[in-house]
Fold these 4 entries.
Entry 1:
Amino acid sequence: MVIALWLNRYLIVVPTLESPYLPIQDSRPEWVFYSATWVEWSLTAAGVAVFCLLLTIAIKFIPAINVSEMGDHADPEKQILT
């Protein structure tokens, strides 16, 4: 399966790069060398900030407990027997 996936990637990437008729060749020089604007950088930063905020809120309401800290409290049958 892994070999088939690598072969699939090879068949997608290599013939595309060997083609001399890429549409970028007839483009404006501003499009060939791309650099992000401040709007794109701010949208990226806002996306990361929203993810961090939602993660913080989720951790607040959904407790994160390590399995090793649970000890014998996880098995109700052991509590009845002891």
Entry 2:
Amino acid sequence: MEGNAIVFSPAFRDRAGITFAKVERAPFKPVVRVVGTVAFNPSYVAAIGTRLRGTVRRTFKYEGDRVAAGEALGEIESAELGEAQAGISQAEASLQAAEVHARRERELVDKGLSTARESEVAQAELANHRAALQAAQQRARVFGGGAGFGVYVLRSPIAGHVVERNVSPGQSVDGTASAYKIANLAHLWIELSIFERDLGAVHVGDDVDVSPLADPKMKILGKVAHVGELIDLVSRSTAVRFTVDDPKVHLRPGQSVEAAITSGESHRDAVLVPDAAIVYVDGKATVFVAEAETRVHAVSVRLGSSDGSRHEILEGVEPGQLVASAGVFALKSELFR
């Protein structure tokens, strides 16, 4: 060591494999590398509630089962539904009686044996009973039915897979319970977490290359669909979404992935060094600038973005200088001798 410079012999250079690369100014397109998680696409998820109080009678579908839209998932015996269905019968009987009364009043008016006022009252009562029947029928439709008196059928509104089942035969439920969750796994989201410092290089429409951690060789290509509007105050990051439709790879919600986002709008000229040239000394990004074949000095630099093989240097070195691009850890160790 000579001050901030490291002087070494040609033998040390050869033994450590020290080589140099020129700092260059060149066209640069940042690549942001992040990790993320596979998630459900909310547009293709349905939560099926119990709607009413009762007892689970049967369940037809279980976790992992495939279901079609409208297919029955289970049945609930409900006194509420039974009362609603009974209300229809009562309303129908009252309507029949009102129709008979209204018809009789019309006949009496025609014969001059009753007044028009009494006929009008009978017609109004008939209209009220028709409305009461419609209300009773609507109430029963809201509750459901179709499998017998007082039996509510849970049905899936979408095609997909059962991902949650929260009911079992014999279980008592209320009207707010969530019985099943159905998801169409042909439509998924991949949610990535982007640090605030990288946000300027990420835009809607940028290319994304995603690989499951379980199979890094598998590639899923797509576009950034959404960049979050809020920064998390703790992590200083925001969410970036990548939509996957009909994936060729079997993806599972909750699964971890790695992603590389190639900026489509941040193409620019930049001062660049190889990624391998950068080491951290006392927490600061550092490169070793060559003063001669066997003499370098450590320079702290301010980093910009990376494209996966080169790093942008915002401050610290100039184009044309030579920096160590291999053997840098051997040089770093010399700093602490």
Entry 3:
Amino acid sequence: MAGVHGIRFGLHFWDLPSASWIEQVRRYEQLGFSSITFTDHQVVPQWEPTAALAAVAAVTESIRLGTLVLDMGLRNPVLTAKAAATLEVLSNGRLELGLGAGYVAQNFAASGVSFERAGDRIARLEEGLSLMRRLWSEPSTTMHGRFFDVSDAPMVLGEPVTPTVLIGGGGPKMMNLGGRLADIVSMIPRQATGEWSVEASVEDSTLERMADKARWVREGAEQAGRDPSEVELHTMVARSIVGDDVDEAIAKESADTDVPVTAMEDSTLYLTGPGPRIRDRLREWQARTGLRYISIFDPGEDQIEYLAKEVVAPLREA
């Protein structure tokens, strides 16, 4: 069983209101949230994540800023390395560069890129990360790899940088890769269909499945000669129904989605109920899986205030 540590919390978005985003991100920082992250989907009208983070960096001081996650099946690693290095400097070291192999087939179709088999997408991610790390630190990089052929590429900035790297995924190969190479590993349900659906993901989001994913991360870290406890484990909550009187709303969500309430309670995709119940549930998540970092997908301003008071503050210093 994992030891008890404080849990940090992030907020995750497609975008923010154009008229009030500055006030909102400053408020999230004041409320004690650890990070603001943006997703990366071509088939969703959303902010481009690296551009959004540069703007957020300019109006905040301490909150960490991240991509959750960049679809590296669609992004050139040389250009991504330069963008990430710039963000790392502009934010004074606050970047959490989240990377993924890409799992939503529609994103590839919308970008005119073939959707390779999973093993090739994962291998591309690993090679791309190796290339980016060299571009962050070496005066000149030449790599003749399976996916990338780069000659005499200069270091992307005039000084070396070491952004925090997050790798996100759900299967054993991705979790192993994260354990070997990442600072943070985001454990999410597997998406075998090539589409995103919360309801279809519940089965792979139970605490038992998350414990399996955490074990795969630890095994990867050990294979690389790393201390597994130094790899921070993360997941993302997709739906939150929180408050002191929300049982009726929880029952409606169950009826609307055909996800039983008991399944919600055993799923890391859901946070439901009043503060004390959520705190107990998150302590159980940590004890059974080692999770120390939770991002919550756009829960709405009222719920953000409630979470800050009833969940974030009590568990941050636990």
Entry 4:
Amino acid sequence: MFLHSRNRTADQLKSARSAGLDFIRIGYNASEIEDAFSYLTLARELGFKVCLNFMKTYGVSPEAFGEKARAGAAAGRT
């Protein structure tokens, strides 16, 4: 499943997991990636294997991209 920044709800994630889905890609523009972190955390809590897809990476500097990637990797981990 690809969860896009424009078509997502927590209920959709829960329904997908209940239906047997075990893998999800969450896609957000790089400049807004922090908005995806709550969905990333929820997906991990639900037991999904999760990939975070950065879209429009040209909109951030390489340094900012690195910081955002590290933050995304840490999101949802306890």
